[in-house]
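Tutorial handout. Part one gives the primary structure; part two gives the three-dimensional structure as tokens.
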Amino acid sequence: MKNVLSWYSTNSATLLSLLAHFTSYLFVWLILTRGELKSLLLGIPAICLAIWCGRQLISREKHYLNPLGMLSFTPYFLYQSLKGGIDVMRRALSPELPLFPGMLLFKTFLPAGAPRVFFANVITLLPGTLSVDVEDDVIIVHTIDTKAPVWSGLLQLEAHVASLYQHELGNEKR
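Part two.
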């Protein structure tokens, strides 16, 4: 009996989620087509395809944001964004400043899914950095100055993202 109830609660939640998505997409479709019912011949398959694609892309592992982590990440993000913008502007306006561009391979200990994707996307806020590719747990980072403290910035950012997603990094070896 317990297994049946567990199956029912899990599947009913999935069915409710599918129904909510279908209804909201249908509502948007009808607004976009000004209520033209003939458009549903194309709309219903398009809605079903959109729901299927969305479900395929969603990570099976759930990663929840920590509200306190967001409070500490926001000022860090704003400060680093400003600092990065000023650094790049200074380099663009002062051609005599030397550039030492290069690539770094950064092994992250963040879990796959949302935390790792968020980390890779936010790397660009560090002064003169850009995430180029993600290969499993290694992020390829381009930097305009390999002599700058990019590595420590990446470690600090990783710690902030770990806190944001309530993930413990521990004392992993790099």
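Part three, for discussion. The chain has five helices and three strands. The chain has two domains: 2-57, 67-164.
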